[in-house]
Amino acid sequence: MKPRVVGAVAAALTLTLALAGCSGKAKSSDDGAADKSGVKTGEGVTDSKITLGALTDMTGVYASLGKSVTQAQQLWAEETNKAGGICGRQIELTVRDHGYDPQKAIGAYTELEPDVLGFTQFIGSPFVSAVESRIDGQDKGIVLPQAWSANLVGSKYVRVIGATYDVETINLIDFLLDEKRIAEGDKIGHVYFEGDYGENALAGSKHAAKEAGLTVVEQKIKPTDNDMTAQVSALKQAGVKAVIVSAGPRQAASLVGVAAATGFAVPVVGNNSAYAPQLLATQAGAALQKDYYVGASTLPIGDAGAGPAKLAEAYTAKYPKDGLDNGVIAGYNAASVFGEALKKACESKDLTREGVDKALLTIKDFGADFGISHDFTDPSAPSTRQTVVMKPDAKTPGGLKVVRPAEVAPAAESFAPAS
């Protein structure tokens, strides 16, 4: 993270940890106390209930993603409870909206942590990074972030579901090379958020460029920058043949829209959080459907496969007024992973944080219904290095169709992030 982001996050962390230290609230411990059935319990677990936390963004830069992720996880909890719960207990999801604000995000973590077993989501790589040492050191509760920075890989407790941004970006550039949209000697542009997300994606584009003989032209932006006119002008003047965007949906829409309006006809590829189907109803909709592509570690929610189709039907029935997007699969998949760990922990009669952590380390080949199998047995690696490449399509539910199934580029397979 750059100094401005680090300063904001660090200040918020200092404040919230100080407040936590001054609180008179007693924190329950994973002392291994067993219930009547012999199952050991700890934070967030009673004889009748398992409480999980969700730290989301429903009012900030990732509002559309946060809403669909959260609602999908609430759907999972409802389905699980109707089926009898897990280990004889009902699942309760406690949600906090941080609006992509550092102080609110870290404050919400500090508030919920003593009372939950773990977190089914935490949106925002910088915020997760800010509390990662605390999670690893004293809290030891599983956190499944909706964030894919390689900086989060290596923790036993913060587990990235999917390819990290650097690997995903390498796979996206490989797609452009395979399609012969770019070639050795070309320049490629990269518009990216300052902080963990954008700079991790930039590391991927630099690696791919070095492997393929490309040159990267950088354009760093802030999450508050919504007009990409200056960036498009700079990239056009530099003569780039393609653009990677590692930012939010608004920035991606502006970039593609401005490029189209100014006659800058080059393909644009974006990371998984650089798209929302709501964009198709904007002025940029036509341009997005022409030559914009998105990478992710799941099939799109509108895919005809059994997994996405079943989830889309259930989600639409539960939330008939809300549209479909890939946040639905991402959220549901994360909650399902946590649920699988809970089931295995129950079999071992250990619903403490330590027990759930051990259970997660036994899970592999999970989530194939959504296009990619995930492996959680190695904390030093993301759960997969594969990426599905998709294209916006207004005629498809969820607004995305697959143009290249799950693959990992040779350059991504061998890539090792700088320590």
TrEMBL record:
Coiled coil: none annotated. PROSITE patterns: PROKAR_LIPOPROTEIN (PS51257). InterPro entries: Leu-bd, Peripla_BP_I. Residues 27-38 have a biased composition (Basic and acidic residues). Residues 23-43 are annotated as: Disordered. Keywords: Signal. Residues 1-20 form the signal peptide. It holds the Pfam family Peripla_BP_6. Residues 49-385 form the Leucine-binding protein domain. Belongs to the leucine-binding protein family. PANTHER family: BLR6548 PROTEIN. This is ABC transporter substrate-binding protein. It comes from [Kitasatospora] papulosa.
